[in-house]
Amino acid sequence: MMTKLRPSQLPSVVRSILRAKGQAHNPETPQIDLVDRETPFECQKSSRFAQLPEDILLLFSRYLDKATTAKVIQTCRHLHHVLEATLYTHLSPLEFWYSHRVDLLHRTLVGRPELISHIRSYRGSLMAAPTSFARPLPKRTLLDRLRMRKVMESPGSYVLHITESEAFENAVFIFTKATDIVDLDFTDYYDWASDPIFAPIKTAVCNMSLTRLYLWHCAVALEVLRAQPELELLQVGWDVPGLEGLDKRDIPKLRSLTSTIQDASYIVPGGPVVQFDLVARYEGPDFDLGLFKSLSLSTGPITQLTMCLYRAWDVENSRMVFQVLSPNLPHLEKLAITVGGYISGQLVC
């Protein structure tokens, strides 16, 4: 025969958990931590693991992936307090077709703004897709649907659709506060640097002290790069014009560059770049003696080069590429060449 315990007979820890669960279902009740998360429970004080300094616990967390860390912080509130912020240090919401995950992440950061200051790297979508496929939408009345259709069919509907979306507001809120980001890569197709509606995002990025930056679609890259004197790694996409105006003093610490050969010829001279990942433009030749010679104008010894040859069938063109590497890059230690087709081993030798 089982006896039902009265609340007064339950341990204090269990009572506090039950009270917290009871409050969670009442939307009018404020969310209050019933136990100070900075100190362990009474039942944890005998645990040697819980008594470890926070610096040691954070050191352990470096060897855990996010999934394991998420499970660890569910074991007790003390570990949750110490390790929760590590889940937000390096964010990479890259799933374009699962934009609702980006939306959920951004909603969490907006609801918990104290976590934003812990972000050090962000590689993923600037904002969740502000359309119906981003996340399940609630049922709308007929009047709501007619109004939305009128807005989408009107001139400038793109601007209205973006700026009036909650996803846009969340992105602006997050990145204007994430001033400690040092590694940034917006993987979606918004031209945040030149489009006026993204002016708050551009201002926020220019105020960051970045060491790594990836520019995929940026019509005013020159202005953004000049605001990053601490930049060490730069990756430039196809649609980034205006780099010919870049001065060697704009990014004096750049050591690694991923770009087309043409863009590298604007960025490298006078800079300490030692690592390259280069491709030729589809409409241009694989080989250009002037462009290759510009790489040798780096003030640092070039030790690593990765290239992509699209016209491997042009044997003479490929041979000239290999011939020019040795005299112009004498300190090369690591060479990787991706060939769009077949190439003869005799050509390499």
Give structural notes.
With 349 residues, the protein is α/β, with parallel strands linked by helices. It has helices spanning 12-24, 54-61, 66-72, 77-83, 99-111, 142-153, 157-163, 166-175, 199-207, 221-226, 261-267, 289-295, 315-328, 345-348, and strands at residues 90-91, 121-124, 183-186, 212-217, 233-239, 256-260, 275-279, 304-309, 334-339. A nine-stranded parallel sheet has the order 1-2-3-4-5-6-7-8-9. Helix 11 crosses helix 12 (289-295). Mean pLDDT is 76; it is low at 1-7, 9-18, 20-38, 132-142 and 145-160.
Uncertain runs with pLDDT below 50, 5 residues or more? 1-7, 9-18, 20-38, 132-142, 145-160
- Structural category is alpha/beta
Total of DSSP H or I helical runs spanning 4+ residues? 14
Helix content: 25-40%
Describe the sheet with the most strands: 9 strands, parallel
- Rounded mean pLDDT is 76
Give the ordered list of helices and strands: HHHHEHEHHHEHEHEEHEHEHEH
Number of strands: 9
Can you tell me the overall shape? globular
Give the N-to-C terminal Cα separation.
87 Å
Order the strands across the largest sheet as they lie in space. 1-2-3-4-5-6-7-8-9
What proportion strand?
5-15%
Outline of the structure:
The chain is α/β, with parallel strands linked by helices and 349 residues long. It contains 14 helices and 9 strands.
